[in-house]
Amino acid sequence: MWTNFKHSIIRSRWQIIGWGLVLGFYGAYMVSFYDNLLGMQDQFMELIASYPPELLAAVGVTSAEELFSVAGYLNTYVFSYMPLIVGVLAILAGSGLLASDEEDGVLDLVMGHPVSRARLFTGRLLAFVTTLAAIAALLWAGLAIGTLTVDLGLGAIDFVWPSLSLFAALLFFGTFAVMASMLLPSRKIAAMAAGGLLTVSFLLTMFGTLDSTLATIADFSPLSYYQGGKAIAGVEWTWLAGQLAISMVFAAIALWRFQKREIRVAGERGFSLPRLRLRRTKAAQQA
Amino acid sequence: MIAERKTTSEPAIRTVGLAKNYGDVRALRGLDLEVRRGEIFGFLGPNGAGKTTTIRCLLDMIRPSGGKAEVLGFDPQRDSIEVRARVGYLPGELRLYGYMKAGAMLRFLNGQRGGRADWDYVEELAERLGLDMNTPIKNLSKGNKQKVGVVQAFMHQPELLIMDEPTSGLDPLVQQEVFSMIQEARAKGATVFFSSHVLSEVEEIADRVGIIRQGILVESANPADLIERALHRVTVRFREPVEWKPLTQVPGVELFNAEDGVTISLQVEGEMDALVKSLAEYPISSIETERPSLEEAFLVYYQDS
Questions:
Q1: Which pLDDT does position B222 carry in this prediction?
Q2: Shortest Cα distance from A262 to chain B (angstroms)?
Q3: Cα first-last separation, chain B
Q4: CA-CA distance, A214 to A218, in Å (whole number)?
Q5: Are residues B218 and B235 in the same domain?
Q6: Chain A interface, mutation test: which of B80, B95, B106, most A Cβ atoms within 10 Å?
Q7: Spatial contact of A95 and A145, defined as CB atoms under 8 Å apart
Q8: B87 and B59 Cβ atoms separated by less than 8 Å
Q9: ipTM of this complex > 0.85?
Q10: What is the band of A286 on the pLDDT scale with cuts at 50, 70, 90?
Q11: CB contact under 8 A, B85 and A114
C-alpha cells in the first residue's frame, strides 16, 4: 500500500505545489487587502448596492454589512467560489484515480503483481486525500502569513476552520468522482457527472438564497453545507462531519466496485449505456 | 527472492471447462488446458480465439463465467495474491508510465513485490537486452519498452512465466536473447506459458503447443508431432507428359499445383505409403518432398476461424 501511496503522492507533487502556492499567495494577498477595503467602506457600500442580487449571491454575500466582517470578507473574496475552482482538480484527480491508469493500460501491468485491489485502492485514495489536504493547508498557510501584514484580530488557528470546510467540500466531490469512475463506463463520463453535480450544486445554493421556492430544494445541494469563510465565526460540526461521512461512503462504494470489476486492457471501452445499445439495434434492424 | 515453492506434481496451469462470456459473445467455451511444471508451452490461436482472455482469467483480472482454473495449485480468484507473487507476467498490450525512467519503472514494479528482486540481477538482465535504465520511457522505442516488460517479468525469478507475445517489437538478436532467458528459466525449474503469432519461435523453443480456436482447445501436442501430422508437399517431375489425375484419387492426396503435364505438386495428409505405391506405375524423373513448417501445420486451424 505504501508503495502506491508514495508513487501517487510523487505524481501529484506538481499539483500540490502549483495549486497550493497559487492559492496561498492569493490568500495572503486578500488578507493583506482587508485594511484597504475597510478604508473604502462607504464607496464599496454604494457599489454593492448597485450590484444585482444574483451576483452577490454567487459570491456568498447575503448582506452588504456582512462583507466587511472578517469572516464575510474572506468568504466573499476567497472561499465562496473555491469549491468550484479547486473542485476541478478534485474531480479530475478523483475520476482518474484508477480509471486513468486502467484506460491507459498500465493498471493491467500493475495488477499482474501481488498487490490486492483493496491495498492499491487505499494507497491511491490516501494519496488523493493527502493532496487535497496539502492544498488546503497551503491556502491556510497563505492566510496565516497574510495576518503578519494586517491585524485582523485573528490568529493562524482561526483560519483552520474555513480551510477545513473547503477540504471537506473538495473531498466530497472528489470521492464522488472516484465512485462515478468505478460505476460509469469511462473516466470522462465520471468527470462530467461529478462536474455536473458541482455546477448544479453551486447554482442551486446560489439561487436558493434568492428564491424561497428554491431554498427547499437547495437543502439537498451539497454546497449548502459548505461554510467557507463563515466558519471563522463558528464551525457547523454536523455539516463537516456529514460531508466527511458521505465522502467515506462514496469511497467505500468505489472500493466495493473496484474489487468486483474486471480490469480492462488498454483501449478497451467500458460497458454501453442501454439507450445507445437500443439505437444500434434499431440501426441494425433497418439495415 | 521467490515466494515459497510448492513441491508438487500438480500441473502449473490447469483449466477445466473454463468459460468466459462478454454479453452475447462467448470468448471461452469450456477450455480444458493443462501445462506441466517445468515445460515451455506455446499457446497459439488466431486473433480473437481467446488467448488473452485465458491469461487474464488466470491472473484474476477478469472473472470466468464458468469452469475452474488452477495456477500452481492455487485458485486464481481466492488465492490471487499467492498466484501473482509466483508469476512473472508480460501483457500483450504493454503500457508503462511514460514520465518514468526505465530503471524507476522497474523499481516501482519491484516495490509492488516488496522489493524482492535482486537489483544486481535486474541490471544483468537489462544489460543482456541492451536496455538503458536511465532513459525516460516516453523516449524509448516500442522494442525498448518491450525490454522493460521482459525484465520486469523475469526479475524476481518466478516459478511461472506468463507472457503474451514476449518478442513483440524486438529485433532478431534480442529475440534470441529472450529465448535464452526462457530456456535458462526452464532449466532452473520454472514453467513458461506464452502466446505468440511467430510460429518459428514457438517451433524453436516450445516443448508443447496448444492451439485455441473460438474459445476451445482444439489441439495440444509437441511441435514435432504437429508437423508430422501436417500436410507434406510432394513435387513429382515425370519423364514425359502423363495422365496424373488418378493420383489425386489416392486417399489423403490433393493436387496443389500442376504447371504442365510433366510437373505436379501434391499435398499429402498422413502417411505417404499409398502415394508412393501409386507413383511406381509412372515414369518419374524426380520426386521432392517438403517438410512443412509449424506455420503450415497451424494454418489449417486458422483457415476455418
A1: 86
A2: 5
A3: 43
A4: 6
A5: no
A6: B95
A7: no
A8: yes
A9: no
A10: low
A11: yes
Cell numbers representing residue B1 in the block: 527472492
**Is pLDDT larger for residue A49 or for residue A190?**
A190
B210 and B73 in a common domain: yes
| Structure confidence at residue A20 as a pLDDT band (50, 70, 90) | very high
Q: Are residues B240 and B217 in the same domain?
A: no
B81 and A116 in contact by Cβ < 8 A? Answer: yes
* Contact residues on chain B for A9, CB-CB shorter than 8 A: none
Cβ–Cβ gap A116/B89 under 8 Å: no
- What's the full length of chain B, in residues? 305
Q: Is residue B50 part of a domain?
A: yes
Residues in chain A whose Cβ is within 8 Å of chain B: 3-4, 7, 104-106, 108-116, 262-263, 265-267
Mutate to test the interface with A, among B20, B57, B61 (most CBs of A within 10 A): B61
**What is the spatial distance between Cα B35 and Cα A129, in angstroms, rounded to a whole number?**
45
| Distances from the Cα of A66 to the Cα of A69, A256, B78, B117, angstroms | 5, 45, 60, 63
- Read off the CATH number of the domain in which B253 is found: 3.30.70.250
pTM: 0.83
N residues, chain A: 287
Q: Among A122, A121, A120, A132, which Cα is nearest to A93's?
A: A132
Contact (Cβ atoms closer than 8 angstroms) between residue B294 and residue B199: yes
What range defines the domain where residue B210 resides?
13-222
B8: CB partners within 8 A, 6+ apart: B37, B73
Closest CA–CA distance from residue B92 to any residue of chain A (Å): 9
Position B185, amino acid: A
Same domain (yes/no): B235, B218: no
> Quick one: cell of B228?
508430422
Q: Are residues B84 and B164 in the same domain?
A: yes
What crossing angle do the helices spanning A187-208 and A82-95 adopt, rounded to 10°?
160
Kindly give the pairing relationship between strand B231-238 and strand B40-44. unpaired
Looking at the structure, do residues B218 and B234 belong to the same domain, yes or no? no
- Written as nine digits, the cell of A240 is 463537516
CB pairs under 8 A between A and B: 68
Give residue A16's pLDDT.
Answer: 93
Q: What is the pLDDT of residue B305?
A: 44
